[in-house]
Inverse folding.
């Protein structure tokens, strides 16, 4: 009994000393924990969670998952509580039991939440090839630093969140951009943002529930944002130069918030919603459909890029049966359905050229992009120009004006879309 008590005291003191030395808010401790995990666990892919807990002083195993659950796993994930309230997450990607890639990340406490701080990605030889650190600047600035394998040397910095740029309301038809957000601090957009009477831009982040919908879909991880919205918005900005932009970051964590997004847009005079996004789950879009139904606002949505007939295998919101939705897919310049783009004789209204489109990305760099996501802004820009000429059009009138422009494709004999092809959506 005395020996067991003495062992417990030594163990408790060791953890307490480590906890005292380690502040969860100190980036250096995040680096130390990640370096220790790579040293002791990456080189031992057979190690289970309890053995890993022993190898990480002061840690406590919270969760361990193996995929598949039986046999030789191809992916192992572990999560540990660390001193000071931080969490260390490990992911082992394996091939026939051998390490292929090792990821280690640390999240630190922020009130009741845990904020991602540092990620390191090592190869099969346990050599760190890249690292990413999320760093807060003066509110609301948040940055993503790309680091070298030493977890310290800075390669470059990306913006995750920024304040609104100053400016005045540009007037014009208000187009809501529902996507991963917008790099609204780029010169291309800073003077195109719809603003309220205090000259504050109107957009909102329904993902994080804050006023700054900066471009970044973090569904695959906070350190690996997908930047989609800026490229899409650049087409609207170019093809509808008189439109005022209202950026929204869509609510991936809780899609019932789409109803709040629609209500927000209507309350702020948005007449057109450009929505190049979707999912296979109809339940994701129930709140959106309920809020949109019978409202005087036109939602332009993408058919998707799964290379399938969405009459047979629906994608939402494209397949919603609402009068004030227009669903569009991508064609090449000759009117042929683009490779990989979805179709549907009942569910998809139009196709228009949206391959190899010139876009501006979140860095302000020029590039090209293709797919039904980029057909959406072309159609939204057309809608904005039409509405600017006839501002009294209802959403249904506007939809009909657009459908009147459709013609049969000279290359598609099957009824791939219900209305047809718009060869040149920029033509007035």
């Amino acid at each position: 009994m005395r020996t067991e008590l003495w062992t417990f005291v030594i163990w408790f003191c060791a953890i307490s000393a480590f906890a005292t030395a380690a502040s969860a808010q100190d980036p250096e401790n995040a680096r130390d924990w990640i370096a220790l995990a790579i040293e002791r666990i990456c080189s031992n892919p057979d190690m289970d969670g309890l053995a890993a807990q022993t190898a990480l002083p002061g840690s406590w195993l919270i969760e361990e998952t193996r995929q598949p659950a039986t046999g030789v796993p191809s992916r192992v994930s572990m999560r540990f509580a660390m001193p000071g309230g931080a969490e260390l997450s490990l992911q082992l990607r394996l091939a026939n039991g051998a390490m292929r890639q090792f990821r280690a990340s640390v999240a630190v406490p922020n009130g009741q939440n845990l904020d991602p701080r540092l990620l390191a990605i090592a190869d099969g030889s346990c050599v760190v090839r890249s690292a990413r650190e999320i760093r807060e600047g003066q509110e609301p600035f948040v940055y993503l630093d790309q680091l070298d394998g030493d977890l310290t040397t800075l390669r470059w910095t990306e913006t995750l969140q920024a304040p609104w740029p100053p400016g005045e309301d540009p007037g014009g038809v208000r187009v809501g951009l529902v996507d991963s957000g917008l790099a609204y601090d780029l010169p291309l957009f800073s003077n195109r943002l719809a603003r309220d009477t205090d000259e504050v831009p109107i957009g909102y982040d329904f993902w994080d529930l804050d006023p700054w919908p900066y471009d970044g879909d973090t569904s695959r991880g906070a350190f690996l944002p997908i930047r989609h919205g800026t490229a899409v918005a650049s087409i609207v900005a170019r093809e509808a130069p008189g439109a005022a932009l209202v950026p929204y970051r869509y609510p991936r964590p809780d899609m019932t918030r789409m109803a709040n997004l629609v209500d927000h847009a209507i309350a702020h005079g948005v007449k057109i919603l450009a929505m190049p996004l979707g999912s296979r789950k109809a339940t994701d879009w129930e709140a959106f459909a309920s809020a949109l139904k019978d409202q005087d606002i036109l939602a332009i949505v993408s058919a998707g890029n799964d290379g399938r007939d969405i009459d047979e295998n629906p994608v939402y919101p494209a397949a919603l049966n609402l009068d004030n939705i227009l669903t569009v897919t991508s064609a090449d310049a000759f009117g042929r359905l683009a490779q990989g783009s979805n179709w549907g004789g009942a569910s998809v209204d139009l196709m228009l050229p949206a391959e190899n489109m010139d876009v501006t990305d979140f860095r302000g760099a020029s590039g090209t992009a293709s797919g039904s996501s980029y057909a959406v802004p072309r159609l939204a820009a057309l809608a904005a120009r039409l509405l600017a000429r006839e501002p009294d059009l209802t959403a249904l009138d506007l939809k009909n004006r657009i459908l009147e422009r459709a013609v049969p494709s000279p290359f598609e004999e099957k009824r791939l879309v219900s209305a047809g092809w718009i060869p040149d959506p920029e033509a007035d």
About this structure: The radius of gyration is 25 Å. The chain has two domains: 2-159, 174-421. The chain has nine helices and 18 strands. The domain at 174-421 is CATH 3.40.50.200 (Rossmann fold).
